[in-house]
Write a structure and sequence with these properties.
252 residues; alpha/beta; 47% helix; 14% strand; globular; binds 3-methylbut-3-enyl trihydrogen diphosphate; binds magnesium ion
Length: 252
C-alpha cells in the first residue's frame, strides 16, 4: 500500500516537473463488460465498478490541476445494446448523480452533459440537468459527460444549423469557417482535447469527438476501465508530456 502511494506521489511530482499539462483530457472509458466477464459477473456489475473509476479520475484530475476532463459515458450506438444493459446504464447514471453531486460541488467541478439527451429517460435527463445546474459555479475542473453522443450526428447537427442560418440570409456560404462551425458543436467554447485516452486496448475512436481530436495525442492502455485510476491517468499524462507535438510543422 505505502509503496504504491509513494509511487503515485512520485508520478505527480514528475508530472509537475515535466512541463505543460494537457489542458483537456478526453477519455473513452472502455472494458467494463470484459472486466465483469473475466470474473463471471453480469456486465452491469462491470459498469458499476466503472463508476468508481470515474470518481478516481475526477479526483486525480483535480489533484493534477487539469481544467477539462471529457468522459465518453454512453454512445449513440450503445442504444443498440440489450434493453437490460441500457436500463442498467441509465440507472447507474442517476445513481452517479445522487452519489457524487455534493462532492463535485464542494470540489469546484462544473459538470456539462452533451449528446442527444432527449433520448434519455425522463429521470436520467432530469438528474443530469439538476447536476449541471447545481455544479454550475464550479471553477476548478470542467467535467464533460458525453451521453447518447455520436460525433457524426454532432457534425451533421452543426451543418444543419449553419444551413438554416444561410437559408435565412443571416450568413453567406463563404462565412462558414472553422470558428463558425465549432460554435455549433456541443463543445462550443471548450478547448480541443490535447490527450485522448482509451482503455481496454481497442485501437479505434468509436465516433468520439472526430472534429475535436484532429491534433490530440492518442494514448491506448490495455487496462480495463474498472482497473483505471490515478496512477494510470498520471502515467498517460507523463507519456503525453514526453511527446513532441508538431501540428504539421518541423521540430524547433
Ligand atoms: C464501456 O465498457 C462502457 C460503455 C460503452 C457504456 P463496455 O461495456 O463497452 O465494455 P466491453 O468493451 O464490452 O468490455
Ligand atoms: C465506446 O465504447 C463508447 C463508450 C465508451 C461510451 P464501445 O465499447 O461502445 O465501442 P466499440 O463498440 O468497441 O467500438
Ligand atoms: Mg466496449
Amino acid at each position: 500500500m505505502s509503496d504504491s502511494v509513494t509511487g503515485e506521489h512520485d508520478l505527480l511530482e514528475l508530472m509537475r516537473e515535466a512541463g505543460d499539462l494537457p489542458g483537456h483530457v478526453a477519455l473513452i472509458m472502455d472494458g467494463n463488460g470484459r472486466w465483469a466477464g473475466e470474473r463471471g459477473l453480469p456486465r452491469w456489475m462491470g459498469h458499476r465498478e466503472g463508476m468508481k473509476s470515474v470518481r478516481r479520475c475526477v479526483e486525480a484530475s483535480l489533484e493534477a490541476g487539469l481544467k477539462h476532463l471529457t468522459l465518453y459515458a454512453f454512445s449513440r450506438e450503445n442504444w443498440d445494446r440489450p434493453a437490460e444493459e441500457v436500463e442498467a446504464l441509465m440507472s447507474l447514471l442517476v445513481e452517479y448523480v445522487e452519489r457524487e453531486s455534493e462532492d463535485l460541488l464542494l470540489n469546484g467541478v462544473k459538470v456539462r452533459a452533451f449528446g442527444d439527451l432527449d433520448r434519455l429517460t425522463d429521470k436520467a435527463r432530469q438528474s443530469v440537468q439538476v447536476l449541471e445546474a447545481t455544479t454550475a459555479p464550479g471553477d476548478k475542473l470542467q467535467l464533460n459527460l458525453a451521453i447518447s453522443y455520436g460525433s457524426r450526428d454532432e457534425i451533421l447537427r452543426a451543418v444543419r444549423r449553419l444551413a438554416e442560418q444561410v437559408s435565412r440570409g443571416e450568413i453567406m456560404p463563404a462565412d462558414v469557417d472553422a470558428a463558425r462551425f465549432e460554435q455549433q458543436l456541443y463543445t462550443a467554447g471548450w478547448p480541443d482535447p490535447d490527450l485522448l485516452i482509451r482503455t481496454s486496448g481497442e485501437l479505434r475512436v468509436s465516433n468520439f469527438l472526430l472534429w475535436q481530436i484532429a491534433y490530440a495525442e492518442l494514448y491506448v492502455t490495455p487496462v480495463l476501465w474498472p482497473d483505471f485510476g490515478r496512477r494510470e491517468l498520471f502515467e498517460a499524462i507523463l507519456e503525453y508530456q514526453r511527446r513532441e507535438r508538431r501540428f504539421g510543422r518541423v521540430s524547433a
